[in-house]
Amino acid sequence: MNRFLKSALSGTVIVLTMSAAMDNASAQQYRRQGSVVFVTPNGEILDYMPQGSGYTRDRSGNRVLVDGYGNIIATEARARGYYPPPPSRQVYGRDAYNNDPYYSEDPYGDTRYSERGAVTGSIPRDASIDRQPLDNQPYPENEGDYASIEPDQQQPQVTQPTRPAEPVITLKNKSKSEIVALQVFLDRAGTSPGAIDGRMGANVTKAIYAYEQMTGEKLDPNNTDAILEQLRMSGGLPVGTYTITPADAAGPYVAEIPEDYAVKAQMTSLSFTSTSEALAERFHMDEAFLKELNPGVDFTVPGTIIKVINPGEPKTSSVARIVADKAKKQVFAYDASGNLISAYPASIGSNDTPSPSGTMKVDRVAFNPGYTYNPKINFQQGANDKVLNIPPGPNGPVGTIWIALSKPTYGIHGTPDPSKIGRTQSHGCVRLTNWDATELAKMVKPGVVVEFLD
């Protein structure tokens, strides 16, 4: 690693061109706002000024709206003539990658990116069983335990001094396969990028800085060949193959997950809804990306060979202190010597239900917990006015893990929506992906210090 980690990360702002914004804007409806508009990275028109944001300039002189950490929120563009192209289905295959030097038979690059033949073989079924089991068997302890959310006085909001923004990380014309390699590298290192989807975003940026904090080395995310070399030596290449088993196809699964908590309470389990959802979670993937990587595949057929991410083995250290950084939307786990063990993207609190400040401790850990909803002391969900006991499952309100804290009502837990972690807010608690929450839960014990950093 030393031969490529010594390059400093670029601090320049990514230049968001009009064509890139238009490519990401299909099926969106836009409206003009004066002579210029501000376009988000996913092609939407921004019609408000986010709190704590400010302006800078890109290399073309256009204004760029960034948050307190230098992450791009939106880029200035002329309103006149800014109309999205007609919706079209994006094609992934040889035609989509004719100009990609990394493309071969694998739709996400050449053979550097996928497991083939005797190079590393296929990923065994139990490769990530500690991260998130798929056989729907109960966890080894605290089966059926319920996350108890009780009333608590909300903390007054205090304006905190702005911390210095970390430099913006610039990727130089990287293909999706190269970004996947970077995400897998970070996942194996213990600095989770969240759900792996082949996209460069805030979760990947935060994971890169956490990696540098953990190792004391600079990571050059543009040096794909060096990253791939390290992946070969730490568990194999980023993409591998997996054969769907009869147990995978059988489930059990539920037809759908209702929004209404009263309907949820009548179910026996909030299991996965499909084989693809279950497999995506096992391999730390966004479900849409799993399907994109395997176009036309029927995931319900046993014996089907699919392409999947080859994720990292779970950490097994002992955590002595946890820091929940509310501004960064990230959780850091340290050992007794103060060394960073792992870092996870997180959704932490909201304006309506803020997370607490200060220090508390881990009270208990529940695997596969149920959830107790009380409308008098929780947020209001629909028209429900009675206490409801919602059954366990990966699609439950707190996912597969509940790490209860010494301050009543608060905890660190999983989620039914892993791809939204770090991008949405929570009801005051700390929300991680199910696999990250499971890894953290197995490294903590009652009494571990948890510090909320404003």
UniProtKB/TrEMBL annotation:
Active site: 413, 429
GO terms under biological process: cell wall organization; peptidoglycan-protein cross-linking; regulation of cell shape
Pathway given in the UniProt record: Cell wall biogenesis; peptidoglycan biosynthesis
Top-level division of the source organism's lineage: Bacteria
GO cellular component, one term: extracellular region
Record CDD domains: YkuD_like
Domain L,D-TPase catalytic span(s) in chain numbering: 320-453
Biased composition annotated in UniProt, kind: Low complexity: 153-162
GO MF term list: peptidoglycan L,D-transpeptidase activity; transferase activity
Region of interest (Disordered), ranges: 80-164
Keyword Transferase annotated: yes
Keyword terms: Cell shape, Cell wall biogenesis/degradation, Lipoprotein, Peptidoglycan synthesis, Signal, Transferase
InterPro entries (alphabetical): LD-transpeptidase, LD_TPept_cat_dom, PGBD-like_sf, Transpep_catalytic_dom
Keyword rRNA processing: no
Record's signal peptide: 1-27
Family per similarity comment: Belongs to the YkuD family.
Name under which the protein is recorded: Lipoprotein-anchoring transpeptidase ErfK/SrfK
Natural source organism: Rhizobium metallidurans
